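Support reply, case 0932

Customer input (verbatim):
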Amino acid sequence: MAKRVLVIDDEKDMRVYLKTLLAKAGFETETAENGDEGLKKAMAAPPDLITLDVLMPKKSGVRAYGELRSAGKTSQVPIVILTGLAQREDFFGDELGDVPRPDAVIEKPIDRESFLGLVRKLTGG
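Our regenerated output:
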């Protein structure tokens, strides 16, 4: 059975790219265009991995991340942050308190092979 990945990103081109890339690698992929939609989809059917953009409308990736990590259904789902922010280590600040840091932070544009290797590793593939 294919592992499921939820891609949460407000950029349509990035959602289409990641969905296509992951599908060609054998993953079942669902997308969400903002943090609110992503949270609803993740809670309804927790995926095997979530990719999450940081800067999004309606709910930032940082806020969505905190809620995903705090919810029982998704607290153990690996989360990979994909961001175009140059200072990616600083965008969480103290806002998350004791919430564990993401499983990985990848700067856009992503390296396809490295990204797929990471996704395979985090999903047990």
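We compared this against your earlier run and they match. Two observations from our side: The beta strands are 4-8, 28-32, 49-53, 79-83, 104-107. The helical segments are 12-24, 35-44, 61-70, 112-122. Please reopen the case if you see a mismatch on your end.
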